[in-house]
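ugh ok so i messed up the first submission bc i forgot one of the chains. this is the corrected input, ALL of the components this time, i swear. 387 residues overall. if the numbers dont match what u have on ur side tell me asap before i send this to the collaborators (the ones from the other lab, u know who)
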Amino acid sequence: MSSQPRIAIVGAGLGGAAAAALMAQAGLNVRVYEQAPSFSRQGAGIHVGPNVMKILRQIGIEDALNAQGSHPDYWYSRHWETGDILAQIPLGDYAVKTYGASYLTVHRGDFHALMIDALPDGMVVFDKHLKQVEDLGHVVRLSFSDGTVEEADLVIGADGVNSCIRDTLLGAEPPKYAGYLAHRAVFPTPVDSGALPFDACVKWWSEDRHMMTYFVTGKQDEIYYVTGVPVEQWDLNDRWLPSSREEMREAFSGWHSTVQALIDNTVEVTKWSLLERDPLPLWSRGRLVLLGDACHPMKPHMAQGAAMAIEDAAMLTRCFKEVGANHHTLAFALYEANRAERASKVQRISHDNTWLRTNEDPSWCFGYDVFNVPLVEPKKAQEPVAA
Ligand SMILES: Cc1cc2nc3c(=O)[nH]c(=O)nc-3n(C[C@H](O)[C@H](O)[C@H](O)COP(=O)(O)OP(=O)(O)OC[C@H]3O[C@@H](n4cnc5c(N)ncnc54)[C@H](O)[C@@H]3O)c2cc1C
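and heres the new structure output, hopefully the right one now
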């Protein structure tokens, strides 16, 4: 390997884009291959917590995102029928003071566009669907659907829940359908909000389903909802399907008038399968390493899936800087040792769907600072036991 390894990142989602930005800043030689011909502003919102904002500060887009997003003073949890407050978690100025950065909600497409724009021109190669990856020992060969072949010294699989790199490391296995789907809709904030004003960030809970709603712009003129609704069967060939106001009315029949106001004013709504995997037995082998949903896809019920992908990207960059990107075996072991426990904990709580349903202290999650958390040593490889 030359003194500067060529790093190929597969996938320019939020995890891959963060890795590219941070690694380029660290002076590493990075190229990103993305299957999509371009990105569009899909109808979805996203929470961005202080744990992520500290990384965006390093990338240089914290101020722009702060200007774009909505800054809720509280996360409310409310009873599905009465609207009674079940939990009220302080965010706003409290988050800035206590966790070191703001907590905001924003349009996912706007956030992603800022991330992609932060990358040096030409770093992302679009329309490159990875078909096969082969670790040849001294180099990795990447074969794309358009018939082209590229080489790299290290490959980062940031290619999402159906990761080709994960399949190469662990064998092809589809993710598990979690038995829930999520309706997603973004539309102009309705004038009439029913019996309660719209909270800037609220999750409505019943025993078996929920609806999370928040604004996706600083002006609060666009609102978003995302649900979790149990549905036994889903054809895994469809990542999402169109839904309708009628379907929403049926799923949320009898819910509070403020929920009904949102359903009545929905313009377009889609429904997405929720997919997950058990924690993986390994995150890397040889010259291949995973991050984000490729490694630990989860139900979105902590609103921390992309956050974990971005934290992974920052920790992997830190590990490259710590031991040198040429020492990739050590860097990958250090990375896994410092990410697996936290990512698995977030996966577990997301699966259980208990996060902030009642008043609890979220500081272990929001207060995390990937750049300053003390590093733990990788576990030593087990000595072979003599026969
Ligand atoms: C309903 C819902 C709501 C959510 N809400 C939140 C939230 O509020 N906050 C939060 O932090 N997270 C949220 N998440 C989770 C979040 O969306 C994911 O965890 C996050 O997108 C993972 O990022 P990633 O970069 O790892 O993967 P992805 O975003 O899936 O990106 C993978 C990229 O790789 C590309 N790719 C895939 N295969 C190939 C290939 N073979 N060759 C080339 N390119 C390829 C894809 O086109 C894509 O661009 C939510 C998820 C869902 C389903």
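quick check: Residues 382-387 have pLDDT under 50 and may be disordered. that seems consistent at least. Residues 10-16, 33-36, 46-47, 128-130, 158-160, 164, 182, 184, 226, 272, 292-294, 300, 303-307, 309 surround flavin-adenine dinucleotide (CB under 6 Å).
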